Amino acid sequence: MERNSIIEGVVVVLVILLIIFLISKNRKDQKQMEEEIKKSEIDPKKHDDKHV
After folding, report:
1. What radius of gyration, in Å, describes the C-alpha atoms of the chain?
2. pTM for the structure as a whole
3. C-alpha–C-alpha distance, residues 34 and 28, integer Å
4. Burial class (CB in 10 A: 0-12, 13-18, 19+), 20
């Protein structure tokens, strides 16, 4: 019984770490996507040079 409880404890810790990892990765990806959307919505800079 002691061996099973140790394995269960390790599994629970690994699941918690996996959840924390996935949440942090999701937030990072969301921020990156928001920045890309903001960049795509901004009008490109126009050149003041004479065009041919």
Report:
1. 24
2. 0.63
3. 10
4. exposed
Residue 40 pLDDT: 81
Q: What is the mean pLDDT of the chain?
A: 86
Burial grade of 51 (CB within 10 A; 0-12, 13-18, 19 or more): exposed
Residue 1 has pLDDT above 70, yes or no: no
Token digits of residue 43? 């009008």
Dig out the tokens for 41 from the structure: 């919505």
Neighbours of 4 (CB within 10 A): 8
Distance CA 26, CA 16 (A): 15
Residue 41 has pLDDT above 90, yes or no: no
